[in-house]
Amino acid sequence: MFPGHFGVAFAAKRATPRTSLGTLVFAATFLDLLWPILLLLGVERVQIVPGHLPANPLIFEYYPYSHSLAAAIVWSLLIGGVYYAISRKRGAAWVVGALVLSHWILDLPMHEADLALWPGSSIKVGFGLWRSLPWSILVDVGVFVLGLAIYLRGTRSRDRVGVWALWAFVAVVLLIFVGGFAGPPPANQRALGLSALLLWLFPPWCAWFDRHRGTRRVLSTAESPTR
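RE: above sequence
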């Protein structure tokens, strides 16, 4: 899953409106932010096999530190705990931690049985929705659009940046998603890891346009005449 993770982050803004969308996107995509680093360091491994699955050419050989269930739980507790230590916002910290874990939960229906329960586990799970290109697109884009709709319903732009920077982000995410099907796969593991590092640009991008938006309730209160 790719755009769906952003959709969950968008939706989570409704639960914790004072938390930056950049923080929520960082949490929801953290496992994929960590993965290319471990890939480039040689800690985790992947094979690129064009045509392997209709919706994904990757065979994830070994990635227990970024994508096993136990690792996802540990990372969720760690990141949620760090956020709480910085912000002292207990409720928001739970949301941030839950977003980290949501990544593994959303990956479960998409992946083949390659998601380990813990590092070293011989038990691997995955429902294999990537075997169907139409269903993969429907589920992934559906989660993204639903989350975006929730975000748009709960926020309103303060200026033009809050509009065009948001829709530029949506366009880029969808173009990358479609390009993954239409374009050639990466040449090798290193090229894949380097290109995946570009995902680190997305949390600050989201934080940027989110600063130019506000919750509808707050903006409506600010715009109402003084009595």
